Amino acid sequence: MKGAQAWRLGSMGDMQILPGSRHRPPLKRPIWIISLVSLVCLFLVCAYIYPPQGSAACYVFSSRGCKVLTNWLPPSPTRELSDEEIASQVVIRDILSNPPVQSKNPKIAFMFLTPSSLPFEKLWDMFFRGHEGKFSVYVHASKGKPVHVSRYFLNRDIRSDEVVWGKISMVDAEKRLLAHALQDTDNQHFVLLSESCVPLHNFDYIYNYLMHANMSFVDCFLDPGPHGNGRYSEHMLPEVEKKDFRKGAQWFSMRRQHALIVMADSLYYSRFRDYCKVNLILNCSSIYSNMLCFEFTTSFDLWMSFSHALSLEFGVELQLCSVSAHFSLIMMIDPGGIANWSVTHVDWSERKWHPKSYKAQDVTQDLLNNITSIDLSIHVTSEAKSERLVQPCLWNGIKRPCYLFARKFYPETVDKLMTLLNF
Questions:
Q1: Where are the domains of the chain?
Q2: What is the DSSP string of 170-234?
Q3: Is residue 157 a contact partner of residue 129, using CB atoms and an 8 Å limit?
Q4: Which residues, 6 or more positions from 128, have their beta carbon under 8 angstroms from its beta carbon?
Q5: What is the distance between the alpha carbons of residues 312 and 338, in angstroms, rounded to a whole number?
Q6: Cα torsion 358, 361, 362, 367: sign
């Protein structure tokens, strides 16, 4: 009993010394809530100003920068595609997705587009000599049967037809060359050259440059001026939209997959064939847009002079719808597949309707060194305030000289070029 009483007393004593109920100041709880709400608001404001980029945030709240979920969803088509467009996209997609044909003896197809005989055949003979089995030659002579002086060009003429600058016949000739070259499965790279083109390097250098490149070299750039997007025609809709319009150079070098796409296309080709015509009103231009990029440089010097005279005298501009170039490649489907510059140099610095031509007295070692050292691609737009678009020539991501060939050399320069180049 004494123990029990002692326990109770001890307990009571303990209870007596315990402090009474604590009275918190009345403002403690509201401050805590206000602080928490302020932190949440601050977090939301920061998230709005600096949108989260992670995919997890997409499921928490929406933001301007959170595009992971929308990118995952299939894009909503802006319009219903025609049967021809669907078929074209299917073919192009399959060509790009399939690995290229492997060859034990990969070759470059050199395709010459010329009126008749090639004035630099002796130079090309020196260039090809000793590299048999690594190249193929194809000649499309549109006006007269060429006379060959090199064994590499004998029996290499293909069936040719008339070619008119600024007409669809130019495209037909280029496709004809590609069709013949594609029959040889060893041909892995395809280079289009004119009768005034010359090589700037020896064969091994050009072979390695092209065969080990992970892209096609097709010139293509956006020109918002009157001689670029100003030549766009709505007759090309819906397949060719103005936002996809491009300008570029005719002389391409492309991989086998891209050459196959050019041959497989009929949809975009037909739009230019049917609607691209010389007219007194603004018509179309030579761009294979949505998917393919066309060039519209031309050699119509007389036509351009006439057009310029009309413009000065009467304020009328004749718009030349030139399809005298080749389709480049798939700007939308394979945007990383082209280099956006041509490996064939041509000098437009004189700002005339035709590029600079080189005579014998112009051909020096300094000229060749200057051309072969250029490592920047420069395009000039046709706006009133001409804008220079400059980009480095990136070969597989590495900055390298741009040009393997050059054009607009007079026939009289052949002997001097052979001496200076000395392959």
A1: 85-280+319-339
A2: HHHHHHHHHHHHHTSTTEEEEEEEETT-EESS-HHHHHHHHHT-SSEEEE-B---STTTGGG--G
A3: no
A4: 135, 137, 150, 152, 203
A5: 39
A6: positive
The set of residues, in sequence order, having a beta carbon less than 8 Å from that of 365 and lying 6+ positions away, is 420
Read off the amino acid at residue 366.
D
Residue 295 CA to its chain's centroid (Å): 12
**Strand 398-399 to strand 405-406: parallel, antiparallel, or no bridges (unpaired)?**
unpaired
> ω into residue 355 within 30 of 0, thus cis?
no
**Topology of 85-280+319-339 in CATH?**
Spore Coat Polysaccharide Biosynthesis Protein SpsA; Chain A (3.90.550)
**Three-state secondary structure call for residue 111:** strand
- Tens place of pLDDT per residue across the chain (423 aa): 444 444 343 444 444 444 444 455 554 556 766 677 677 667 665 655 555 544 444 434 444 444 443 444 445 556 788 888 888 888 888 888 888 788 999 999 999 999 999 999 999 999 999 999 999 999 999 998 999 999 999 999 999 988 887 677 888 899 999 999 999 999 999 999 999 999 999 999 999 999 999 999 988 787 777 777 767 777 777 777 777 777 777 899 999 998 998 888 877 777 767 765 544 332 333 333 233 343 333 333 333 333 333 333 333 333 444 443 334 334 556 767 888 899 999 998 887 778 899 999 999 999 999 999 999 999 888 888 888 889 999 999 999 999 999 999 999 999 999 999 988
DSSP-based three-state secondary structure for 140: strand
Q: Which helix (H) or strand (E) holds 389?
A: strand 388-392
- For 154, other C-beta atoms within 10 Å of its C-beta total 10
C-beta separation of 231 from 307 below 8 A:
no
The three-class DSSP label of residue 160 is coil
Residue 345 near residue 374 (C-beta atoms within 8 A): yes
DSSP state of 166: T
Structural contact between residues 378 and 390, judged by C-beta atoms closer than 8 angstroms: yes
Q: Structure pTM?
A: 0.72
293 neighbors 287 (Cβ within 8 angstroms): yes
